[in-house]
Amino acid sequence: MKKPELLAPAGSFDSLIAAIEAGCDAVYLSGTMFGARKFAVNFNNEELIEAIKYAHKYKVKVYVTVNTLIYEDEVEEFLNYIDFLHRSNVDAVIMQDIGMMDLVRKTYPNLNIHASTQMHIHNLEGTKFMENLGLERVVIARETSYEDIKKIKEKTNIQLEIFIHGALCMCYSGQCLMSSLIGGRSGNRGTCTQCCRL
Question: What pTM was computed for the model?
Answer without folding.
Answer: 0.85
